[in-house]
Every structure is written in C-alpha cells, then in structure tokens.
Amino acid sequence: DVVMTQSPLSLPVTLGQPASISCRSSQRLVHSDGNTYFNWFHQRPGQSPRRLIYRVSNRDSGVPDRFSGSGSGTDFTLKISRVEAEDVGVYYCMEGTQRPTFGQGTKVEIK
Amino acid sequence: EVQLVESGGGLVQPGGSLRLSCAVSGFTFSNSWMSWVRQAPGKGLEWVANIKQDGSENYYVDSVKGRFTISRDNTKNSLYLQMNSLRAGDTAVYYCARAWNLDSWGQGTLVIVSS
Q1: Are A39 and A24 in contact (CB under 8 A)?
Q2: Which terminus of chain B, N or C, has fewer Cβ atoms within 10 Å?
Q3: Banded model confidence at residue A98, pLDDT cuts 50, 70, 90
C-alpha cells in the first residue's frame, strides 16, 4: 500500500509571507494512463474538506492563484505565495493513482 | 451547483448497524464514481469506499471489508453506505464525495459507536 508522508505537520505562518508544504509518496504515482493523480485538499476548522489542486498542479475552480502545486514521481509540494487569514486550517495531500490515500495533514496557523 | 447531502448518522451500540445516505444534485450522478471518506474526531481523513458509475465495481479500505457495503441508486441520485458490525473505531464524520479524486464533498454526517 502507498504511504503518503507530509511535512511539516505544523506550520506557523506570517500573513503576507509564503508557505510551503511537502508530501512524499512511498511509490511513484504514475497511472497506467500516464497521468499522476495527486491532489491537495484544504479543511478549514468546522468545515468539510475542499479540493484545491488536482493532477499535481491544476487548480480547481475558484481556487486563488496564490496556491500552486508541483512535483513528480514521489515528491510533491503545495505553495502559497502570500498567506491570507482564510488560509488557516489543515492541508492534506492525497494520491488517487491507486486506492485514495491521504497524508497525515499539515496544520497551518497564523503566528 | 453541485450539492451532496449526507444523512443517517447517529448513535449506535457496538455491533450494531447503520445506513448512511447521500443525496446529490447539480451534476449527472450516473456519470460519476462516488466515494465515502471518514474523519475520526480530531484526526485526519481516511478513504472508506468507492463505487463505479454503474455499481459494477467497488473498493474498500481493509478495515471495513466484510462489514460495510457501498451502493447507489442512479434513479434516485443517491449513494449509500450500509455499515454492520460497527466498532468504536468507526466513530467519525462520514463524508460522501464525488469521483475517485474527490472533487466535491458533502457536509458530513456524524456516526458515534458507543454503549
């Protein structure tokens, strides 16, 4: 089974400053169709998760362009160019190439 | 607008059963894989099960195999999760989500397994 490992697990950030979260997969995430089904989700306190990024680097509809995803193979990164107050919460990576598997989550809070 | 609305959660004793439902609107249900994901109190997300558009394929996380059954009724735009032999460890908010890669989520329904 694939294991997804996020770092850091806690990320204090300053408003207006950049932030970055890493996710490493125990296996290469390339589907037989050639796509890499790797996603990022954001869950605000008390809310349902929302998908931000799909297939490594594609933003979902309505996601601000300060969010960007990158990576390949086993190493992936979510970057926020300038953190805003609404970005607090927990961020999860998830691989969907095999059975959906989530990372442990990274809690983002304002310093 | 895509909407997914879960129902059926509640308090159940260990060993008991519960059936969750998810009513969807705003998209063509019969064209979409559908999934159930759960989140134990204060914990992270765990995929539980998913089902193909026509119900011909389904997959489960190992911890629920043989106890949970995912199903769907495309005539009613509804997804279901039959949960039997419930354990304390199944206590969680259960979300339904669209597609294998979970592009839209419901608000969740809370299942508490306790005596």
Answers
A1: no
A2: N
A3: confident
